[in-house]
Amino acid sequence: MTMDVGLKTCTLLRQACGENLQRYGTRMDSVWSFRSAYDEARKLKNAQDEYCRKAEAGEWDSLRGQDYPDSLQWEILVDVLRGRVKVGRP
Questions:
Q1: Sign of the CA dihedral 51, 56, 57, 59?
Q2: CA dist., res. 83 & res. 70, Å (int)
Q3: Measured between alpha carbons, how far is 23 from 35 in angstroms, rounded to an integer?
Q4: Which pLDDT tens digit goes with each residue over 12-67?
Q5: Up-side HSE of residue 35: CA atoms within 13 Å toward CB?
Q6: Where are the domains of the chain?
């Protein structure tokens, strides 16, 4: 889902916590899963920021042999942490 915010279009992520508890466990299990996912996304974001910092500083020798840190699994949450995707509730 996308929405217009002034001149800027942003993506909206709908995130719910606590439904289907019989299938997935307790609310604490859900919250722990959210926290764990956001922590992994934070680690990836920090690695990306460090890679970009080195590239902008021209430290090419330290980047030799390294690929840009990327993960499709955590990409949307990294965008949430960067403020590119807004989180809403259903």
A1: positive
A2: 17
A3: 19
A4: 777 766 666 666 677 777 788 889 999 999 999 999 999 999 999 999 999 999 99
A5: 6
A6: 38-57+68-90
The angle formed by the CA atoms of residues 79, 83 and 87, to the nearest 5 degrees, is: 80
For residue 66 the two structure tokens come to 């390294």
Rg of the chain over Cα atoms, rounded to whole angstroms, equals 17
In which element (H, E) is residue 4 found? strand 2-5
Q: Nearest Cα to 47, choosing from 32, 67, 64, 33?
A: 67
* Residue 78 CB-half CA count within 13 A: 16
Q: Give the residues across from 37 on adjacent strands.
A: none
The one-letter amino acid code at 16 reads A
Confidence (pTM): 0.78
What was the pLDDT predicted at 66?
A: 92
Looking at residues 75-87, what average pLDDT do you find?
91
